UniProtKB/TrEMBL annotation:
Record PROSITE patterns: TPR (PS50005)
TPR repeats by residue range: 250-283
Protein name, as recorded: Tetratricopeptide repeat protein
Matches recorded under SUPFAM superfamilies: TPR-like (SSF48452), UDP-Glycosyltransferase/glycogen phosphorylase (SSF53756)
Alphabetized SMART domains for the sequence: TPR
UniProt keyword list: Repeat, TPR repeat
Record-linked InterPro entries: CellSynth/LPSAsmb/PSIAsmb, TPR-4, TPR-like_helical_dom_sf, TPR_rpt
Amino acid sequence: MARPGEKARQALRARISEALRHLDGGDARRAFSELTVLRAEAPDDPLLLHALARAAYGLGRFDLAAGFAGQAVRHDPRPAFHITLGLALLALGHVEPARAALHVAVLGAPDLPEARLAYAEGLEAAGQFAEAETELREVVRLRPLEAGMRLVLARFLARRGRPDEALRVLGDARRLAAEDDVAIRQEQVSLLALTGAMDEAVRVSAEICAVLPDDPAAAANHGAVLFSAGRPEEARAVLGRAVSLAAPTAETLTNLALADMALGDLLSADQAFSEAARLRPDDTRIALNRGTLLNELGQRRSAEMLFDRVIAAVPGTMDAARARFNRGTTELAEGRFREGWRDFEARRSLLASLPRADLPDWNGRELAGRILLCGEQGLGDFIQFLRYVPLALERAPVCLVVPEVLLRLVTESQSLPVWKEYFRSGRLVVTQNVPVEGVVAKASLLSLPWLLGQGAPPPFAPYLQSRSGAVADRLHPGLRVGLCHAGSAAYRFDRRRSVPLADLAPLLAVPSVRWVSLQPGETPEGFEALPAGDMATTATVMAGLDLIVTVDTAMAHLGGATGRPVWLLNRYGGDWRWAEGNRADGPDGAPRSLWYPSVRIFDQVSPDLPVVAWREPVGAVAGALRTLVSG
């Protein structure tokens, strides 16, 4: 028969266990309340003190948790109590005392995986990463058949920038896990996306949806992965299902809006962004994305207000830099060039560093030493901002690093008046490779307008040419017209920029036109093929054309820089460089580019779906081409 004191202890243990069941069920507040009542009966009971520590930890009161756990340890220094004490101290930022407490737990119970897991957490916080990994691998050795232990190791490896190793560990975990396990699959999706294995990420996220068919979060995550994989139609369908399964979150609505944008459905995207902003009015990421959409809708002042709000709300952050860069594009679109070039510089903090990190950035002042000028991303940008190099050469000798595909064209253009003297004197050197010696500062081509104190684009003179120059075949009547109807499909929002050939039927039906493809890859039926080669080869083809018709790609910049006649099919609210503030009326009254006077612009007139929005400019180009043919 149990003695009276023993019966009281058993009753206390039972009531502690009952309170902890509330904690395990997620009700830390009730557990803490019941345990606090019990403490009046047994203020120094170590099990009760430890239970109070666990409940306080669950409430996020890490100070109380550390205090109760410390008292428990003084009465009974068992490993489990040291684990709770160490974790509470770690949450409070007391890394070294936490590590010491967790080390005591491991020494007291070396075969207890929970002790080593917690100790690994303390070691990682202390920056002892090799030791932390050793502990985690020991945990896996102690529990070789538990998938969850491998999941913890994989997450550690991912945090240490070793995603491939983490994926191998997750593969082992998957083989041990239950068929309906979701946690391991979710980790796999994140790492597969990180390593660029998007098709595999899509497959695994689809498996999660199969396990949780009615879970809105699973559908929302799958939709986000599909969008990142460049599959916006599927993404929109899955995200729409996520919205229908439950009250949508701001994240789901944002991803749905981005998918709509990628498909060119700007009005639906506006509705989704508006609802996301209503749910989270202070979310700067939503404001950023919505501002981008409003810019596409031509509502630039409203977009600028959102960008201003982000800059004020989170100064010094990457989101603020993105907002400032986006504000720069709205300013440039409206022709506010000096403000625009200033804010356009924010892109430098969003992009990879320029080559030669050992060189200082050029400040635009006169130098005797040579400066290194580099491009950033697209070929169109490189061609456009080449026109500022002569202005830079007035202040310093230049070594211009040119992409391989443009190198021959730039070299062959040296006899043009804008370059001739600079090449002849050696003040301008052109190369494909970044030089190791002979330069004293560096700058981006796209930074030149700001560094040189420029406003509107300087007066135009052709600055690229093909030395060989093609002569059009006049044995056959009719115009030779080059066509580039699509950009790179890898660009997330290419659907709005590119035009399917089927939608160009009114243009292609114009008689007495010999069509020449300016599209890399497969040549459309009935077109002359674009010869394989670099941009000099393409410029040679252009020299033999009567007209170039293109969407917003490098072909528009190449044709414009060489002075060839270009008709640009421009999307609604398109890129800043073709917007109203970058135009002038041509001799015929039609809008021309300030950057390239030979480029005439044909705009979409409404933010409809692309299949509808392209009808107006395609029809206008077809009509103008008929007039040209008849003339």
